[in-house]
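User: Assemble these into one structure.

Assistant: Restating your components, then the assembled model:
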Amino acid sequence: MTPTTGGVRERPHVIDTRGEEPFGFLYLAVVATEVVVLTGLWWFSQYFSG
Amino acid sequence: MHPIDWIIIGVYLTWVIYDGLKRSKGTDGVEGYFLAGRSLPWWAVGLSVMATQMSAITLVGTTGQGYDDGMRFVQFYFGLPVAMIILSVTLVPFFYRAKVFTAYEYLERRFDAKTRALAGLLFLVSRGLAVGVIISAPAVVLSIVLGWSLVVTALAIGVPTTLYTMFGGVQAVTWADVKQMVVIVVGVGAAVLILILSLPDGVGVGEALHVAGATGRLTTIDFSLDFTETYTFWSGLLGGLFLMLGYFGCDQSQVQRYLTAQSVDAGRRSLMMSAFWKIPLQALILLTGVLVFVFYLFHEPPMLFNAAHDSEIRAGARATEFAELETRFHIAFEDRRDAADQMIAARRSGAAAAIADTRERFVDSQAEVAEVRAGAVDLVREVSGDTAYTDVNYVFPTFITTQLPVGLVGLLIAAVLAAAMSSIAAELNALSATSVMDFYRRRFKPDATDRHYLFVSKVCTAFWGVFATGFALYAANLGSLIEVVNRVGSYFYGSLLGVFVLAIAVPRATANGAFWGLLAGMVVVGLVEATSEISFIWYNVVGALAVVAVGLILSFLTPSSVEA
């Protein structure tokens, strides 16, 4: 193994979506799920606390 | 405890150690030891990510918080799903493609050796001490609840974890995490089922939740914009976003999880598991605490859940005062139970006026119970001298050992041990990786064989395991030190996140800008903490912004280190 030496300066792309499969729909599903879960928690709170 | 419960705990510990030792056969090089040869499936890595985040104090403390304060703590995690998406398109692909062992290794490639060393050192100091606390906190609780000595509980947590992590490396850690997550989820699910089945005849779950809701315990969202409050919608969404970006993106104990995945996509998918499930799981754990509260509406709870303090005060100079509080507590409990019954009856009748009246009476009686209990906690603080003492962490373990049937007690204690061990193992593995890759190999012995590094890695894991277990025994008696350790973590995450933002998003950022920016970020957080009342969840935002601001200024004042 070759340890890094500090001699190389690397800077990546800020956004990197490259991969074997697209993740766009999965990210949308995460956001949609969070909206549903938070709405559900809000409803739960209102329903049982009221 | 019943012998069957002992057997269940024994089988669990034996199973984890045996499987961990078995995994050592597949770990014949340092890349296998720390990164599992980048071969693990996404679902195993995803469960490992979740298990690492959930320590025993999360499990025990959160249920206690649900009991005492309700579900508003769930807001702490509202920023997590978005943080996972941001990390999936930034740091995850970057770290994976850079083929690094540690997150800090990249800082040398982008900036210089001193920035890498500083970040690595901060991680070793803050997490090295924190892992002692992660052992200490459940060890103290279990020693009191089970009646074992503190040394025994600390060793029962620390020794098996160190053994399987030392011999099996990250493979053992990950596969143990998978099993431990299963034990935790099954254990919590079983507790919820028992709590529902324990409701008095004729009382439905909905009716019980309405009673709990009257005390505000089911309030899950608070839209107030108050920077001194940790648990609000905005604190969770924005402060929590930065905290989660820092924790999952810059803390080696989490970065190392997704570096073991088979591909970049597998790493991303593993984080998506937390994005989907963390908030619902946390809500379930908090709801478990609320259901414990409901259970104790109909079964008289102990005034103090910490039996050791209870006995100590009974035998001490303030026993009379304690007995008076206990009498008051008993009367208040009976009154509250009656009020709860009446409230349920009123809801069934559907009469609005009766519902409002009985609800008010129930809320008043709950306030009386809470006041007496607070008086008992104050008494403990005065007698023990521990001004920060709280009874919250003893609620769920006491419920487990005194109310659950044989078999489930063993399963739930195993779940608490599992939660502790999964976090500790990941920390030990990450501490060893940083010690070896960022310091030993980088600075002291750069040209040794792979076999040598593997040996040193195992020695480092053992060292950190022994250190953490020893520190746990020491920290158990030092409440203020524990607070200091936790505070160091909040200085660290935001500032380190700022350095990675500079590294990835600011082409002009220089090594000096990053190094001094990192130090300045922690100083700024320290000043903010000393001079304001804002909640610690915002320190991560402050730290990250301060590092980026100072780093940018210094970068424009000093020559660029980025090669075109």
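Chain B touches chain A through 57 residues (CB under 8 Å).
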